[in-house]
Design goal:
The structure is a homodimer. Chain A has about 140 residues and is of the alpha/beta class. Chain A contains 3 helices and 7 strands. Chain A has helices at about 15-25, 55-60, 80-95, and strands at about 5-10, 40, 45-50, 70-80, 95-105, 110-115, 120-125.
Amino acid sequence: MRQKLNIVTLGVNDLSKSVAFYEDSLKWKRSDASTENIVFFNLGGIVLALYPKDKLVEDVTLKFNMEGTSPITLAYNAKTEQEVDDLLFEVKNLGAEIIKPAQKVFWGGYSGYFKDLDGNLFEVAFNPFVTFDENDNLMI
Amino acid sequence: MRQKLNIVTLGVNDLSKSVAFYEDSLKWKRSDASTENIVFFNLGGIVLALYPKDKLVEDVTLKFNMEGTSPITLAYNAKTEQEVDDLLFEVKNLGAEIIKPAQKVFWGGYSGYFKDLDGNLFEVAFNPFVTFDENDNLMI
């Protein structure tokens, strides 16, 4: 696993309201890769994604405690489907818990989730629609 | 607020055990800025920090639900103490909740926390011991 994370995803209660906070209030510029379902802000080295909490919980296939803070996931973008498989196999052997085995997902990619020793959620995904710069940052 | 986040901090149950997962298992290289109390991994654009959960909860001055996942905080490094004050004043006016007013903190910096509309925890900190590269990334 390269020493890299590509996306921090915040699960939000009301996407348009949350987007307005970052976009209208903080004056951050959304990425053109954003859709009506997910909004990206390229922070120069990592991408912040806002995604509805219920969809995120569904995507992770994990029941979340809806009280308190929202779920956050940390994503690592692999460069092939094989790398996703290899990496999940590797971290499982290292003691991480596989939450969602790698599988084709609705947005056209191939993705799985693991939990680290403290319960933090890591997605490992191959996304055929993105490219990387020379520092392995997503160009979105 | 510049369109930037500098640090993702994971609250961990057992620092040495969690560090071993990233360092020994994933073969990530810790930053020389790490201490016995906090460990940094520079991911090229953002820094991943591992910090004991109880200390993180104490630092945020927020009681966390200890069940389920661990706390995660997202940090923005300001370049002056004044910028910390200005930014917290600004986000408060924008509807964010100030969790910890800006104050001198034990590690020698000046820091406060706010919660966004969904309860995500953002630290705004001035750290006199760090420098930035030309892309506002921390050089640690």
